[in-house]
């Protein structure tokens, strides 16, 4: 059964063009739509240091349904789209945990959100340490190389 989603906000003040690295210092805003959220929707959010942002890769047209080289780099083996975090996913949905800098009514200031200016925001959730993975976390060597300068 297909689902549709209505964005609740928009990323503002972030990068205009997709750049693969150095997102850690990027500060931007999430402006929530008052037609979609009540004025008190962010009440209590400033008690958290980080939020998880669900957004749309709105400038991505291409869809990968199979395998590709991560970042198009042939020195890394081809892996399935579900084994990487590329924007050309079947539903173009991105999810990032970022630092919450400030809350001002229906506007959040965040740092480290790897979404472009104008990206539709589908949801924001407080990051709870209890949701962090339990046990050992493992990842392939190429992902560490790929992410070494990402944030």
TrEMBL record:
Residues 5-136 form the TsaA-like domain. Keywords: S-adenosyl-L-methionine. Belongs to the tRNA methyltransferase O family. This is Transcriptional regulator. It comes from Streptomyces scopuliridis RB72.
């Amino acid at each position: 059964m297909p689902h549709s989603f209505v964005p609740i906000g928009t990323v503002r003040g972030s990068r205009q063009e997709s750049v693969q690295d150095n997102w850690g210092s990027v500060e931007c805003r999430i402006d929530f739509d008052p037609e979609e959220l009540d004025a008190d929707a962010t009440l209590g959010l400033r008690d958290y240091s980080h939020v998880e942002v669900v957004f749309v890769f709105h400038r991505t047209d291409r869809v990968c349904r199979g395998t590709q080289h991560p970042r198009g780099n042939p020195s890394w083996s081809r892996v399935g789209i579900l084994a990487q975090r590329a924007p050309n996913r079947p539903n173009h949905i991105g999810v990032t945990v970022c630092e919450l800098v400030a809350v001002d009514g229906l506007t959040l200031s965040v740092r480290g959100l790897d979404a472009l200016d104008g990206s539709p925001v589908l949801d924001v959730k407080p990051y709870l340490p209890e949701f962090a993975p339990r046990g050992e976390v493992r990842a392939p060597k190429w992902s560490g190389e790929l992410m070494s300068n990402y944030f």
